Amino acid sequence: MPLVNRQIARAYLAAGDPEIKQRTWQIAMEALVRTKLGANRHRWETAIRDPAFDLIRTVLLFETQPGQLFRVLERGTVATNVFLRRIHNFAVDVGWLPWPSIPKRQWPTVKYGDKRAILIEEHRAIIGAERNPERRAFYELCWHLGGSQGDIANLLATDIDWNQQIVSYRRQKTKTVALLRFGDELTSNLRQLPSVGPLFPYLRSVRSCDRATEFKQRCQGLGIQGVTLHSYRYAWAERAKQCGYPERFAQEALGHNSQAVHRAYALGRK
Fold first, then answer.
1. Which CATH number fits domain 2-106: 3.30.230, 1.10.3470, 1.10.150, 3.40.50?
2. Residue (of 259, 258, 265) closest to 178 by Cα position
3. Which stretches of the chain are DSSP H helices?
């Protein structure tokens, strides 16, 4: 009976959507990538090349069994879990998967590795060792603004309001606006950058992974472990928490829905 019911369901589905017999997971992945823009699209293009997805690339969406997805999760990493879940939800939302292959509560929990903020001593050591003036200024702004590396690298001179001493920009990932007021120390750093156009002409032209690799190499040379460029974001959020900065203002400063703020303030409530 299960086989008969499945054949009946297949006939009904094929009548309503003729392409259902050709639509594979690879097609769903590519369709989802086309909805993304900029750096987010590049992130997705890299994600769908995950070797773990080879197990289901040619599998038809509506014939997928839960065990097939669980085998992908077993072979993959934390990122595999995150992106496969989003691809699966996308297929359900657009009607390509008639029903969820794995119920929401049965997905394995996403367990990220421990992350920490960069310390002021580590930041100073990196600045002291960096001989490239553009990278040195870039790390300084990451420290003072707490922005993601992509947002900081793409800052423009027009993002600075010198009269109000405010830096504002729209986040690439979430499209929310980050708004921060700066003081004398950051003013000195900003004055050394171009007064028109991009603040970091070279760094904005390279891939995010290349900026991350350069930073990693600098840290390795100094014996600094456990930090990435994103650690600057955690450092800003933790400093805001320590000085009693209201959480909603910290969210506005780093861009709403900031995971760094959520983490830092949640740690303080435990």
1. 1.10.150
2. 258
3. 2-16, 25-33, 38-47, 66-75, 78-93, 120-129, 133-145, 149-153, 184-191, 208-222, 231-242, 247-254, 259-269
Q: In Å, how far from its chain's centre is CA 225?
A: 21
Question: What is the CB neighbour count within 10 angstroms for residue 96?
Answer: 18
What is the predicted pLDDT for the residue at 133? 94
- 10-residue mean pLDDT profile of the chain (270 residues): values are 57 61 92 89 92 95 91 94 95 88 89 83 96 95 92 95 92 84 90 94 91 94 93 90 83 73 57
Class of domain 120-269 as given by CATH: mainly alpha
Nearest CA to 29 among 103, 85, 70?
85
Backbone angles phi, psi at 105, to 5 degrees: -75, -15
C-alpha triplet 158, 161, 163: angle, nearest 5°: 140
Are residues 101 and 85 in contact, defined by beta-carbon separation less than 8 angstroms?
Answer: no
Domain ranges within the chain, ordered by starting residue: 2-106, 120-269
pLDDT of residue 132: 94
Query: Rounded to an integer, what distance in angstroms lies between the CA atom of residue 84 and that of residue 242?
Result: 37
pTM confidence score: 0.69
Residue whose C-alpha is closest to residue 153's, from 175, 138, 168: 138
In this prediction, residue 11 carries a pLDDT of: 54
Helices (H), 181-230: 184-191, 208-222
